Amino acid sequence: MKNLCRVAIAAAALVTAACQEDKTDELRTKLKSPEVAARVAAASELGKQRTASRPAIPELLAALKDEAWQVRVAASVALVRIGDKESPPRAALPLAVLARDSNAFVRRYAIWALGMMGAGHAALVTAVRDPEPLVREFAAEALKGVAAKADAKTLADARTALEALSHDEARLASGKFTSAVVVKDALAAVEKAATKAAAKEAR
Predict the structure, then answer these.
(1) Euclidean distance between the first and final Cα of the chain, in Å?
(2) CATH 3.40.50.300 fits 1-85, yes or no
């Protein structure tokens, strides 16, 4: 009886996997739909499937160049949710390019995605100087998270950029600039990481 149960469970798992694969293939096709809403929905659904959607990573990378900004954002989020076994993630370079997108909303999510992946450190430093407040804030928050893994040059550049923000008191006080708390926390994380790196090198 136990063996029969195991066989039934194994069979059910195979059926589920096959259905998941069929759904993923269908969503990969929908990413090429002429309708923006359909492409956004497809990217979002692929993200919800998490690791089961890894076969669709190439299509999502292509979607980062979609003419519709909504699709570019949806693809950025989906790539984070799906994850990538490769190191660095295949999305790192395309997202670093997207961090310079003409649309501030797209830049914001590209920076968020890079921070979540722990990649694109140089792009995060550059984004600290972005003209849009929320992009700067996302960049500072991301740098706080990746500081421990950043190299010496990135840490030095990040410190310079963050210090410039922290000293810009007039803009910090205006409510239209990056949160002073976020900048302070990011700077502290960068300085801590730089101190550890220097101590390790001195040994």
Answers:
(1) 63
(2) no
Closest of 76, 81, 26 to residue 51, by C-alpha: 81
- pLDDT digits 0-9 by tens, 46-100: 999 999 999 999 999 999 999 999 999 999 999 999 999 898 999 999 999 999 9
**Would you say the C-alpha torsion 30, 32, 37, 42 has a positive or negative sign?**
positive
Write down the pTM of the prediction. Answer: 0.85
**Residue ranges of domains in the chain:** 1-85, 121-203
Return the amino acid letter for 171. Answer: R
Question: What's the CA gap between 165 and 31, in Å, rounded?
Answer: 39
Tell me how far apart the alpha carbons of residues 199 and 31 are, in angstroms, rounded to a whole number: 49
- What's the rounded Cα separation, in Å, for the pair 115 and 144? 9
